[in-house]
Amino acid sequence: MATAAAKPISIGQSDQEIKPQSPTQRVVKRFTRHRAAMFGLMILVGVIAYILVGSIIFSEAQANYNDTSIRLQPPSAAHPFGTDRIGRDILARTIYGGQISLLIGFLAVIVEVGFGTAIGAIAGYYGGWIDAVLMRITEAMLSIPSLLLLLVMAKFFAGKIEPIQFLGRSFSGSVIVIILILGLTSWMSLARIIRSNVLSIKETEFILAARALGLPNWRIIINHILPNTLASIIVSLTLGVATAILTEAYVSFLGLGVQAPTASWGNMLTEAQEFNVIKNAPWYWFFPSLLILLTVLSINFVGDGLRDAFDPRSDNKV
Predict the structure, then answer these.
(1) Helical (H) or strand (E) element with 170
(2) If exposure means fewest CB atoms within 10 Å of the residue's CB, which of 29, 37, 205, 318 is most exposed?
(3) Residues 244 and 104 sit within 8 Å (Cβ to Cβ)
(4) Which domains does the chain carry?
(5) Residue 266: which of 283, 282, 253 has the closest Cα?
């Protein structure tokens, strides 16, 4: 007697097997679910687009061109952001000043991350007297007020470096000084974080296996240890940019940062202060201040989102 063929059992969507996700996909998913981070990313993209598109519309010569007959003019159709104390267009100045502020922020953080990662990885991996020496140097640097050191070094080197040409633009030598000083005075916290991560990672099974296979130490550090500390590096890099931009702004505000004729958002505020236009010409300081606020706020939001995205325990927080 023939038996009836078994009917296929339909499986509901809720009972279907969930497709596995890679660690990168999970990080991206957590980041895109972080509303503040996405909001900050949109603002940051808008600021960068403003600077890039503005650089196409306005030339650096237009940003530096002055006409004293239109000095301190309020915003108008010809000058949407108004003019400054010598008749320069503030809109064009904020575009090229933003290039300098962002350039200083990103390059200073590259220096910071390079030094902090190298010192932290070497100290944590080798241990012993190498760790002791490097950590004592780190602690000594932490005991020095970085802002005071920055002001002293900026004052000492001010005007001693000739302007440089880069990508068709002329930069005052103070830009290089600020980048190096910011980078070399802010790597210590990252070095301690990287060291603590390396101390916990180097005793894991896959690192012990790599040593047993005879891999050189530099390959173990670069190929196996540092990729597992990438989360700390990325978050530090993101938040460090915001800190560097703020630091450059208030050092330039004190007159010891980026020097004329190179514009930055910070030294634009200095000019507004020096000529007592806070009340009489509020547009002079409002637009550079607004751009600093938006940039730093958006970078902090993105950094906060990245920190949560790399933390698996944050799934229920966003």
Answers:
(1) strand 169-171
(2) 205
(3) yes
(4) 28-58+81-316 (1.10.3720.10)
(5) 253
Residues 84, 290: Cα–Cα separation, whole Å: 16
Measured CA to CA, the distance from residue 309 to residue 316 in angstroms comes to 11
pTM: 0.79
Provide the Cα torsion 228, 230, 233, 238; round to 10°.
-150
The tokens for 176 are: 């290089």
DSSP 8-class letter at 71: T
**pLDDT at residue number 313:** 58
| Cα of 40 vs its chain's centroid, Å | 13
| 274, amino acid identity | E
Two structure tokens written together for 17: 């097997």
CA distance 269 to 292: 11
Amino acid at the residue 55:
S
Which residues of the chain carry a pLDDT beneath 50? Answer: 1-2, 9-16, 318
Structure tokens at 99: 């290039």
> What amino acid occupies position 200?
S
Task: Look up residue 300 and give its two tokens.
Answer: 């902090």
Write down the H helix ranges in 158-216.
Answer: 173-184, 188-201, 205-212
Residue 139's alpha-carbon distances to 14, 108, 134, 172, 224, in angstroms, are: 55, 21, 9, 33, 27
pLDDT tens per residue across span 271-308: 777 665 666 778 888 888 899 899 989 988 988 888 88
pLDDT of residue 50: 93
Tell me which residue has tokens 């190929």: 223
User: What is each CA distance from 268 to 116, 248, 254, 287, 288, in whole angstroms?
Assistant: 32, 12, 11, 10, 7
Name the token pair of 105: 């922020």
